[in-house]
Structure formats: structure tokens, C-alpha cells
Amino acid sequence: MPPPYRIIKVVRDEDFRSRIGNDGHYFDLVDFSGIEGFSVPDSLTICEFKGKLMEKFGTPVQCQRVWLWARRENKTYRIDRPLTTEEEKLSVLHPHFQPIEINRDDALVFLKLFDPEKAQLRYLGSLYVNVSSRPSDILPKLRSLAGFCASEPIELYEVRFCTDANRFPDSQINRFISFVLLSPFDKQEVKFDPSVMCEAIDIHSTFSTSGIITGDIICYQKSPPQNWRIYSSVASFLQHVCDHKEEEWKRHNLEEEIVMLKRQADTHRLQKDESMTVCDQLKHERDNAVRQVNELCNQSTHVILNFSRKDLEQATEHFKNASEVGDTEYGHTYKGMIHYTMVAIKLSSSQSLFQQEVSILRQWRHPNIITIIGICSEASALIYEWLPNGNLEDRIVCTNNSPPLSWHNRTQIIGEICSALLFLHSNKPTALVHGDLRPCNILIDANYRSKLCNFGMSNLFLQPGTCPPNLTARLPYMDPEFNTTGELTTLSDVYSLGVIILRLLTGMPPLTLSEKVAEALQGDSLHLLIDKSAGNWPYIQAKQLALIGLSCTEMTRKKRPDLLTKVWNVVEPLTRKPPAATWPYLQSASGDICVPAAFTCPISMEIMKDPQMASDGFTYEAEAIRSWFDRGNIRSPMTNLVLPNLNLIPNRVLCSSIHELLGIEETRKARGNGDFAAGGCGNF
């Protein structure tokens, strides 16, 4: 019989640095769910295990430390003391470690730095302090760690949290043994039901007077100027995060109540009408909670970070040619890394163009409009999110032998462009016109979703006595009436959209494209123009797109269709991908069921049966994401960033919602079959 095994998890100092401050991790030092585990036999001693860690990570045994957990008064678990040399000779399963008298004059504290200008909280490291000394004694060390000047005034705060008292029973306390390389760590401080207390530390009182002991967290920052406009202190920043998390927690609780109610209904066989009534009521409450969260998000100001020219030079290695990814009339674009995040940095060709784009992107946010992260006024630069698949022009012509876009991706992109234009044109009191809608100004993300960019056409084109730059490439997409009147309207964007629709449909160059498509329709030979590399494009759908594209490219504006009532009503239904063959009852002829995008796996593009959440925060079909891992991929299929780990967590809430939708459709289908049996005919 094989010896019993257990899982031991190990964390290193770089694990702190890679997690704290990223993806909303502000309160914890480390989350065990994201840490690599080791399966070891119960008979293995701690000393022997440290030898295995040296083989794995290359860290010498003498540099490793093993710590005991202890429960604090605020009901969280923190490190208490290191194991003695004798204790390290015991096995990992040893049930008791006797209390010993140790020197409590020194305390190990963890340091986090808050930047009020960037609203950023990150981990710096740990530090031993003498409890009888004063915080003022370590100020030079803190300034050095943060890169502050020697005279920089700083403020110190102690941060404490409260959590569920029953999360770890007393009987299990001796099992919490932390195996740590180079730096000790705390288990998750809070899952998230926090009561956060952030108190200023008197730098002239001793650490013991302030109640600082081993395992405590000290946050510090520069002293901000008076009337700071965003978050003047770490306390105000943490309170802001808590306020938003509280709304998310309410939503989570409501969703759990819905799942619990369904289980109770199945167990006790409640009457269907009664259970549906209660379920609908909870859904209504859930929808209200979602609406409140969305309203809160809409009310909050979109923070745009300010960067210095030095920041941009470091990100692009002084704007070297190898970092340049684009050169247009709008400016030079570079690829760079800022704060461990890949970004696109565009140096605007003029100050007026820079101001134009900032004024639009600062106010307006939409899933299909490029997201601005920050600006650098000194260099007239805009910092955007990085989209790895380049622009739509490159994807249409398959630059660098990239695979052609599928017909479904093309219809999806058409729908997304239409949605973004509707958003811009609905602005009050004056509609926003993009004015330079071309494939090169449409960027594609890792999941082949599209985003509009380069909002500065009026500054480039409409100055008195000027001629639009790069006219040859731009002319096929330009509204013919603009060429004669010099006036841009929303229907100018509609014309450009029509040309893009025909290009995606045929893959042909834009010049005289509408005439060629019109002739093909008249001669019933459209199938000869459809781009075969896109796959088996449904002919009925292709013909609908050809007709709507031609109507958009009418020479006179008054003949072009209304974007909302004519174009969107045709395009939106075409963007719905047919569900997988494993769910045939969803393919009813009536088409009255709409599968939410969240129910579809981003990899297989099929409705998920076993949704699993990966460490990038996205949910995938279990078989698809495991196959992705089996092929040696360690990057996220959605963001292209290296995944923290390859662990998967079942998304039970989403699974329940999918089953609910399928159950409703199955019931509708069953009723339809009954009508068929009674009437002797039916439509499948």
C-alpha cells in the first residue's frame, strides 16, 4: 500500500510582486489557490523537503525559512515564528509543535507602497524591525526601497482586516505550516468579505506602542499635496475599492441565492409556477443589483494615468526602430512595456490631433472603441491597450501569412463596427463622427474582437485650405458628398461602413468594389465574388450583407439607410453564431432564442457544457482549455499574457445559467413537438 501523501504549497518573494496590485489584489499578500503545490509523503521531514525545494527553485537550503501560522485577534492567519532546527527534523505530518520562548524583540513586517498619483498599491518586500525602536528609524530604508529622495516626507499606515471566524477551525491550526523561499508569506488575508481598518502610524512612538508585531502590514506613501483630486491616502484608496467590492458581493450573494433556490426546488419538488415566481423575483433583484453596479461604474470617473517622457523612453528602449509598429499621418506607434503590461504608445503628429483624441477618448468608453490607459502631454503621446492581432487591413490581406478571418469573425466584426458607430452617433447634443473609418483604423484583439481608433479626422482634414493626407488610400472609403461639400455627417461613416462590409465579404481591393458587387448580384454570380478563404459562408447571409453594403455606398446621402433601423436590424441577427451540433434543439427555425456571448467558449466558439475559469479570469469549455494546455501553451487565449498557473476552477454559477437556458428551450421544443403530433405537420 503506497504511503499517504499531502499537498504542500510554496510561495516566493516574486509571487508577492507579481500579484499584489494586479487584477484587484490589494488586500492579500498571497492567495493559496494561485500557488504551486508539491505532493509529498507524510513521512518526509521538513529538512528533506527543503532539499527538494533547492532542486526545484535553485535556492540554497540555508536561505529557506519555514514558519508557523497563528490566528490573530482579527481572525486572520499570519506567520508567528520560524521553526527551530530541531523542529525541522520532524515530518510534515507532525501534529504538534510545542510553544517555545523566542525573542519577541524583533518583528517581521511586510511593506506595501501606495502611489497617490497613479492610484497604485504594490508590494515592496519585508523588513525586520526592533519593537522598541521607532518608525522614524527606518524611514531612510523605506525611502531607499521606494526610490524616494532622502528628504521626501512620507506617511505610514497599519492595515488590518477581519474575516470569517469559522473559516479555519482551531483543530486545524497546526496544519498551517508555510514553506517559504527567501521570504515568509501570509495565507490569504481575506477572500472577500472585508472589514478594513487603516490607521496612521506615529513615527515618533515605538513599534510596540503602535501594536506592530510579526506578520503586520505597513503601507506607506509620499505625503500628497493638499486638495489632491483623486485618492490622497492609502486609506481613501482602500475604502474606494471596498465600496465597489461591496456592490459586487451583493450581486454574488444574489446569484448564490438563485442557485440555492433551484436546488431546494429540485429537492422538495415544489410546484413549477411557485418556484418560477420566486426565481423571477430573485432575478429581478439580481438585475437591480447589476444595474446599480453599472450605474456606479458609469458615475465613477475613468482615471487616465499621466506618464513622463522618461517612462515612455524606458518602455520603448528610447523609441528604437524595433519597437515601432506603425507610422501613419496620425503619428508613430510603438510597442512597449509599462508596469509589466504590454501597451501601444502613439506619438501624435500634432498637438491639436493629440488634444482631439484625448477629448473624445477621455469622455467616451465602449467595448468596440480603443481603451486609453494614459497620456504624456510632454510628448503629445497616448498610451493604449495593446491588441496583438494588428489592424483589420492586415487581417484582410493576410499580412505575414497570417490565417484568413473566418466568415463568422467577419460578420462579428461588422456588427461590432456598427455598434460602435451607433454609440458615437447617439451623442447629444451633437453626434460624434469618426470621419476616417477604414480597415487600418480598426484594431483586432486576441479574441478577434474589433475596436475603432484614430479619432482625429477633423483636425487632419477640415482645416481651411488643407488637403487630406494619404488621399489615394483614403479615397475609396470617403463619402463622395464630402469631396464636394467638405461637410462630414453620420452618413459619411455609413458610406465607409458599406465599403468595409463589401471588403470583408469579398476580400477584394476597395476601388470600384461596389460596382463589381452590384454587377454580380444582377447577374446572379455573387457566389463567385465571395472570399472562399473565409470558409463556407452561408449564401443567404452573404447576399444580405452584399445588399446592405451596396445601400450604404449610395452616392447621395439621402439614399443611404438609417444606421439603427435599417443596417443594425439586418447586421445584428447575422452576428449570432449557430450553436454547436451537440445542442440541436437550439437551432429552431423560429430563431426566437438568443444565446448570450458569455455562454460560448472563446476557444471553440461553442456553448459550454463544463465551464471552467482559468487563472486569467476568463471562462472556457473544460475540454478546449485543457487541449490548449496540452499543446504546450502557457499564455492566456484571451490576453496573450503568461498565465500565473494552469489551475482551473469550475464556474458553477455560469453552468447553472446555461442549464437554465437549455431547460427553457427544451420545454419550448417539447411543446412544439406536441403541436406537431396533433396537427400532423411541423417545421423543424
Labels describing this entry:
684 residues, alpha+beta, Ubiquitin-like (UB roll), Transferase(Phosphotransferase), domain 1, 4 domains, 6-stranded mixed sheet, 5-stranded mixed sheet, 21 strands, 18% strand, disordered C terminus, Ubiquitin-like_domsf, Kinase-like_dom_sf, protein kinase activity
Helix and strand arrangement:
Elements: E1 5-12, H1 13-19, E2 37-41, H2 46-57, E3 64-71, E4 77-82, E5 106-115, E6 120-130, H3 139-146, E7 154-162, E8 177-181, E9 195-200, E10 217-222, H4 234-268, H5 272-299, E11 305-306, H6 309-316, E12 324-328, E13 331-338, E14 341-348, H7 351-363, E15 372-376, E16 381-385, H8 392-396, H9 407-425, E17 442-444, E18 450-452, H10 457-461, H11 471-474, H12 480-485, H13 490-506, H14 513-522, H15 526-529, H16 539-552, H17 563-574, E19 611-613, E20 619-621, H18 622-630, E21 649-650, H19 652-679
Parallel strand pairs: 1-8, 5-10, 11-15
Antiparallel strand pairs: 1-2, 3-4, 3-8, 5-6, 7-9, 7-10, 12-13, 13-14, 14-16, 15-16, 17-18, 19-20, 19-21
Coiled coil: 244-299
Organism: Oryza punctata
Pfam family, one: U-box
